[in-house]
Write the structure tokens for this entry.
Amino acid sequence: MKATTHPIIYAYVLAAALLTAACKEEKKPEQTDDTIPVKIISSAALTQAQAVETSGLLGSENEARLSFKIGGIIKDMMVKEGDKVRKGQLLATLNTTEIAAQMGQAEENFLKAQRDARRVQNLYRDSVATKEQLENTQTALVLAEKQLDIVKFNLSQTKIFSTADGVVMQKLQNAGEQVQGGTPVLHISSTSSSDWVVKCGLTDKDWARLKGGEKAEINFDAYSQTFTGHVKTLAQVSDPVSGLYQAEITLDKAATKLASGLFAKVHIYPKEKTSMVSVPVDALIEGENDSAFVFVAEGNKAQKKRVKIAFLDGDKAFILAGIDAGARVIREGSAYLAEGSVIKVVQ
């Protein structure tokens, strides 16, 4: 008797075959989107004066380090540091014992030269003295008179008077001390509002960009307001120690109380302007000194560009070279980009 195959068995066999064939098929990889979403902004062209940034100390244009012309012992010191003084006020004196003795000696020499000159002149009229003797006594008289004038002048320089209405910044010597002629004794600074200047140093590159008279903005740590002024003088020789060129910035009239020695940050705006490109600061990456990089959208790819930075002002960066005006600069999403990355511009 023949055995018959049940239809159910065939169904199981067919299902198993189909399952095996399906397992042998390769799985297709999941497709991913590698494009990076970015936001862009067009760089703007402008003509801007690149500011010269420096710093310095506030002082008075009318400052003086006062000294005695001759050496001696200080007799009296009438002021101390911080005292207000008036122009012409007596500030210090020397002991005049020595110079007074020199004065007496010079007067006696002058009187003797006068007597000798008169006597020889009378003898010359009587043909007793020669013309040479007469001329010699006349010369001696002139020399004695000049010596007397020198001593008189030195005697007048044994007192120090204030050269301006101001304040005593420093008292460098005290009563009873021996000083040499020309050694500073007092440092006086004018307090007139029209005399305030900021003295600051410039590099040779910045010095070459200035001509004098440029407008300036001054900020003091002591005040929140911004002061205005202009470049008054530019040194024609550099400081031998720092190598910088000194510039004096005159402040415009200010009602605020100022004091000598205040630290100032200065921005000077040259008259000659430079063509630059403006981009947002957040578009810059890998900044170092005056250079950085930006990504620029070219088609659907990001291109990395090196740019030279002129200066930063708030949220804007001013570029001297590296990109042209109208360049599509990537301002958001640049942290995820590399050279040639595929990008998608989003709003």
